[in-house]
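quick q for whoever's on today - can somebody do inverse folding on this one?? i tried earlier but teh output was garbage lol. tokens:
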């Protein structure tokens, strides 16, 4: 245990990082980027976010299966394919486009910064994604779902843009 203590010093648990992101998303992502380019860490963050996206859909899918008398397993299987297997590919492509835009606007840094910013923003906004899923499952479509969805989208965009600015503005990460 003593061997790993120096390596773990200064590292925060994911939940603490998520809470800290609501106070200052740029600081958290800059600190994560300064820890070094670890593609395994970026992929783990993305897969965690995609797993939460999948779980957040469960209440709405259960509602749909009950109301429309369709097989829940079929709906879950399609959503699993979309969120856990196909969505990561889309997010990697989106991060590549974001990196290109950041470089075109004069930003400095590797494409890893764009991936980390996008993937962390998805994971950090997960509590609101879960709330959106609960509203979709228990209340259904309506103004409430639209409001929660809009709040999630605004928070996600705030995290993502602040993160991109933090890691591309100075090019130090």
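ok took a stab at it. sequence:
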């Amino acid at each position: 245990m003593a061997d790993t203590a120096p390596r773990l010093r200064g590292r925060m648990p994911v939940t603490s990082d998520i809470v800290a992101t609501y106070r200052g998303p740029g600081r958290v992502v800059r600190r994560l980027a300064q820890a070094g380019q670890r593609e395994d860490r970026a992929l783990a963050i993305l897969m965690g976010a995609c797993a939460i996206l999948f779980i957040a859909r469960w209440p709405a899918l259960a509602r749909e299966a009950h109301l429309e008398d369709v097989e829940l397993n079929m709906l879950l299987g399609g959503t699993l394919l979309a969120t856990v297997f196909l969505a990561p590919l889309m997010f990697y492509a989106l991060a590549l486009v974001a990196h290109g835009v950041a470089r075109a606007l004069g930003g400095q840094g590797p494409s890893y910064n764009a991936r980390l910013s996008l993937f962390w923003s998805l994971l950090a906004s997960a509590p609101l994604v879960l709330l959106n899923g609960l509203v979709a499952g228990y209340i259904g479509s309506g103004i409430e779902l639209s409001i929660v969805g809009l709040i999630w989208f605004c928070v996600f965009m705030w995290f993502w843009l602040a993160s991109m600015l933090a890691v591309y503005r100075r090019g130090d990460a």
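fwiw Residues 1-9 have pLDDT under 50 and may be disordered. also The radius of gyration is 18 Å. so keep that in mind when u check it
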